[in-house]
Amino acid sequence: MKKVFIYPPNSLILGDLVERFGHKPLMINNSIGDKVRSAEIDSPPLNMTDEDPKKGLHYAAIEVPSGVRGRMSMIGPLIEEAEAAIIMEEAPIGFGCVGCARTNELSKYTIRRKGVPIINVVYPTNEEDAKIVVKKIASFLKSLEDEE
């Protein structure tokens, strides 16, 4: 079982696909859920600790907008944990979106720099393309099993 970072990092569709092939999806949804349920958080939506902005500085310089650093404090550790990645390009906002173009670019750059196996697929616009994308992702996930 490999830990697979998915992009967009909140895509339930990609997360489900990764799980179906026996791998662990690294999704921001799980990280946010852990933070909201954490005992050290006083009350949502104040779901940041004093340490979170410091974590964000590990991934983005002080001159970078605070929203990017805040998002990267959650996404960066997922990327560090990743053993592989699926990147869906040109996905509509409803598919899963961080909502910040700079964070999206930094996330993709960081995972590519890591050097783990990555598959890049373009969001399908029709049923036939969707079948092809699923087959490509399935093949990629199966190839990860062969590496073990």
How would you describe this protein?
With 148 residues, the protein is of the alpha/beta class. The chain has one domain (3-147): Rossmann fold (3-Layer(aba) Sandwich). Helix content is 51%, strand content 13%. It is built from six helices and four strands. A four-stranded parallel sheet has the order 2-1-3-4, sandwiched between helices. Helix 4 runs parallel beside helix 5. The protein starts with a strand and ends with a helix. The mean pLDDT is 87.
Provide the fold topology.
Elements: E1 3-7, H1 12-20, E2 24-26, H2 28-37, H3 52-57, H4 66-81, E3 84-89, H5 101-114, E4 118-122, H6 127-147
Parallel strand pairs: 1-2, 1-3, 3-4
Helix pairs in contact: 4-5
Organism: Methanococcus aeolicus (strain ATCC BAA-1280 / DSM 17508 / OCM 812 / Nankai-3)
Pfam families: DUF2112
Protein name: Methanogenesis marker protein 5
Largest sheet: 4 strands, parallel
Across the major sheet, the strand order is 2-1-3-4
Summarize the amount of helix as a percent range.
40-55%
The CATH class is Alpha Beta
CATH architecture, by name, is 3-Layer(aba) Sandwich
Number of strands: 4
CATH topology descriptor: Rossmann fold
The global form is: globular
Q: What's the gyration radius in Å?
A: 16 Å
What is the number of helices? Answer: 6
Order of helices and strands: EHEHHHEHEH
Arithmetic mean of pLDDT: 87
Structural class: alpha/beta
Terminal-residue CA separation: 8 Å
Strand content: 5-15%
Low-confidence segments:
none
Concise structural overview:
The protein has 148 residues and is an alpha/beta fold. Helices cover 51% and strands 13% of the residues. It has a four-stranded parallel sheet, sandwiched between helices.
